[in-house]
Amino acid sequence: MGSQITIAVDGMGGDYAPREIVKGVAQYASSHAGLSFIITGPKEAIEAELLLYPQIMNVEIVDAPEIIEMAEEPGRAVRTKETSSLVVAARLVKEGKADAFISAGNTGAVMAAALLICGRIKGIKRPAIGVILPHRSGKYVMVDAGANADTKPEYLPQFAVMGSVYAEQVLGLEKPRVGLLNIGEEAEKGSSFTKEAYKLMEDAPVNFTGNVEGREVFEGAADVVVTDGFTGNIMLKLIEGVGNMVFEQIKDGIRKSVVSKAGAALMSPVLNGLKRKSDPEETGGAVLLGINGVAIIGHGRSSSKAIVNAIRVAATSVENDVVGLIAQGVQNSG
Amino acid sequence: MGSQITIAVDGMGGDYAPREIVKGVAQYASSHAGLSFIITGPKEAIEAELLLYPQIMNVEIVDAPEIIEMAEEPGRAVRTKETSSLVVAARLVKEGKADAFISAGNTGAVMAAALLICGRIKGIKRPAIGVILPHRSGKYVMVDAGANADTKPEYLPQFAVMGSVYAEQVLGLEKPRVGLLNIGEEAEKGSSFTKEAYKLMEDAPVNFTGNVEGREVFEGAADVVVTDGFTGNIMLKLIEGVGNMVFEQIKDGIRKSVVSKAGAALMSPVLNGLKRKSDPEETGGAVLLGINGVAIIGHGRSSSKAIVNAIRVAATSVENDVVGLIAQGVQNSG
User: Fold this and answer.
1) Contacting residues of B for A191, CB less than 8 Å apart
2) DSSP bridge pairs for B139
3) Chain A residues touching residue B149 (CB < 8 angstroms)
4) How many other CB atoms are there within 10 angstroms of residue A70's CB atom?
C-alpha cells in the first residue's frame, strides 16, 4: 500500500447495490488515478458490474459471498457473517490493507462492524456519528447524530474534539466554533443534562462558544453542533423530513397550475440549488468518529452520486489524518 | 358572564404591543359579536389604540399599569408585578371573569402566571405546551414543546391524554393517533427514556399507535406527537429554522436573477401557500395544557394576524371544553 490511499467499499450495502455502488466507485476512481479501491461482495456480481467500466485500473475486488440484510440484528449479523461484504470491508481497514471503509448498508451493522472489528481510538469513551449539514451560508458538523441512544454529559467534550477535527480537516474551517444544542442561550438554561454538559464543555480543548438553539443552527451560529445521540438523530431526521415536505409541496402546487409550472421552470436554478444543498446525497454520508480508521455510513438509498460524495469525504479524512488528530486531541483533553 | 365566552388578552405582551394586539382583538371582535374581550394594560395606552376601532362594542379594558419585560426572571416577575398586564389577565381567568387568557409576552412568565395564578387541573403531574404544526396533508399537535426541561417518562401518558383532547376538539380529528417521537420504529428501539415511556403509553387511555421518527412526522404518521419538553422545544425551533432558511434562500436566489424573479412571480401562489402553512403566526400559538383555564402563549413577534389566530384557538378550546375533557381524561387514566 505504501503512501497510496486505499478505500474499501461494501459493494452490497444499500438499496441500489451493487449497481449504484460500483458505478460511484468507478466514477471516482476514473478521475483519481492516485487512489486505490477495493470493492467487497460476491465476486461474480461485482465483476459483472465492473465490466461496464473496462478502462478503470485502480479498482480491485475482494470476494465476500455473504450479505447482511437491512433488517438483521446488527451485532449478531457482524459476529456470525464473517465473509459478508461489510465485515470483509471493515477487516481490510483493521489489517491495514485499506485506510477507510464505506458502507450504505444496515446502519447499526456498519457501526457494529467499525466498533467490533476496527475498534475505538485509545481514550475515546464513545464513538459518535458526525454529519455535515447545510446552514444559510455554509456547512456545519453535527455530533452525535445517533450512535448513542443514551448519552452521558461526560461524553460531550470528546464529541466536541472529534467534531472540531472533522470540521477543520474536512470542511476546512479554522478554529471551528463549537456550540451546545440547547433550549436557551444562557449558560444556566436547559435540562439537567445540558447544564452539566455546559460546564464540562468549558474545559474542553475546543473553541466552545456556548449554547445554540435550533433556530440559530440554520443561521450558521456554530461550525460544530454538539448534542446527545437521541436529540441528534431526531434533528437529522426532522431536517430531512421538513426538506422533503417543502419540495413535495412545491411540486404539488406546481402540478395544479400551468402558470406556476411556467414559474417553476424559470425558477428551476434556484430550486435545484436549494435541493442540492439540502440533499443528503450531497453531504457524503455520516462518519463514525472515534474509530481506529475512517468509517463512513452511507444513506440506505445511496445512488452513485452519494457514493462519490462518501468517497470524497473518506479520502479527505485519510489525507488529512482525521484519525491521528482525534487521537492527539483526546490525549490533550486528559 | 353567563354562557357568554370572555377572552382576556394581555395588551402589553410581545414586540408589537399594544398596537398589533389591540388590532388583532378588534378584528376578531368585530366579526364575533357573541364573544366578549378584555384587554389588560395601562388604560390610556390601550384606550388610545382602541379608539381606532370606534365601532367595536364587545371589548373592554381592565387597567394594569405594570409591564413584564421579555428578559425578566419569570417567577419573580409574576410574583412581584401584581398589577402587570399579564398577571391581571391570568387573574381574570382565576376569578371566573374570563374563560381564557392570551399573552405574546415573556414565555416563561406566561407559564409562571398560568401555573401560579390559575393552577393546574387536579391530577395533572406536569402541565405541558402543545403546538399545532403542519404535515404534508394536514396538521398535528406536538406535546411537550418546552414546558418541562426535564421530563420523566411517567409524565408522557398525561401529555398524550392532553394532546388527544386538543387534537380532537381544536383540530377536529377523531380518535387521534398518538405517536411517541423516537429514533426507531420498533417498540424496543430508542433511549432508556423512550423505552420506559413506550410501556407506559401502552396503558394510556389514548389511541397509541407506537413510535414515530422525525421524518414520518411530516408525512402525517401521527395526529399527536408526544415527546419530552427538551426534544420538543428543539424540534419546534428546528422546524422554524429550516422553514426560515428555505424561504431566505429562495428569496436570495430570486434576487440574483431576473429570470428567477419572473418565475417567482408566477409561482407566488404556491410559495405563499407554503409560507402560510409553515408560518407560526398561522398556527394560533402554543397552548399550555393541564392548566385550570385556557392559557395561550403567543409568539413574541406576534402581529395582529397571530393574535387573531390565537383568539380562534382560545375560543374553540373554551367552546369545546378542552379543560373539562382533560380533567375527565386524567381521572380515567387513574
Assistant:
1) 149-150, 230
2) B134
3) 183, 190-192
4) 13
Q: Which residues on A lie below 8 Å from B273 (Cβ)?
A: 249, 253
Q: Which residue of B has its CA nearest to A271?
A: B250
Exposure b/e, B168-197, CB count within 10 A at least 16 = b? bbbbebeebbbbbbbbbeebeebbebbbeb
Q: Name, in order, each residue with C-beta under 8 angstroms of A2's C-beta and a sequence gap of 6 or more.
A: none
| Per-residue model confidence as pLDDT tens digits over A16-31 | 999 999 999 999 999 9
Q: Which residues of A35-65 are buried (b: 16+ CB within 10 A; e: fewer)?
A: bbbbbbbbeebbeebbeeeeebebbebbebe
CA distance A128 to B323: 44
Cβ separation A146–B269 shorter than 8 A: no
Q: Alpha-carbon distance B74 to B117, whole Å?
A: 13
- Residue whose C-alpha cell is 436547559: A190
Measure B95 CA to nearest chain A CA, in Å: 33
Complex confidence, ipTM? 0.90
Amino acid at A21: I
Q: Do A183 and B262 touch (CB under 8 A)?
A: no
Question: Residue B254 and residue A265: Cβ atoms within 8 Å?
Answer: no
Question: What's the angle, vertex CA B24, arms to CA B78 and CA B21, rounded to 5?
Answer: 30
State how far residue A254 is from chain B, nearest Cα, in angstroms: 7
Closest CA to A204 of A163, A167, A158: A158
CB contact under 8 A, A234 and B257: no
* List of chain B residues whose C-beta atoms are within 8 Å of the C-beta of residue A192: 149-150
DSSP H/E element including B178: strand B177-181
A121-179: per-residue pLDDT in tens? Answer: 999 999 999 999 989 889 999 999 999 999 999 999 999 999 999 999 999 999 999 99
Check: CB of residue B114 under 8 Å from CB of residue B87: no
- Residue B67, class by beta-carbon neighbours within 10 Å (0-12 exposed, 13-18 middle, 19+ buried)? buried
Q: Where are the beta strands (DSSP E) in B90-153?
A: 100-103, 128-135, 138-143
| Cα A132 from Cα A106, distance rounded (Å) | 20
Closest partner residue to A238 (CB to CB) among B233, B239, B264 is: B239
Q: What is the CA radius of gyration of chain A?
A: 20
> Is the pTM of the predicted complex or chain greater than 0.80?
yes
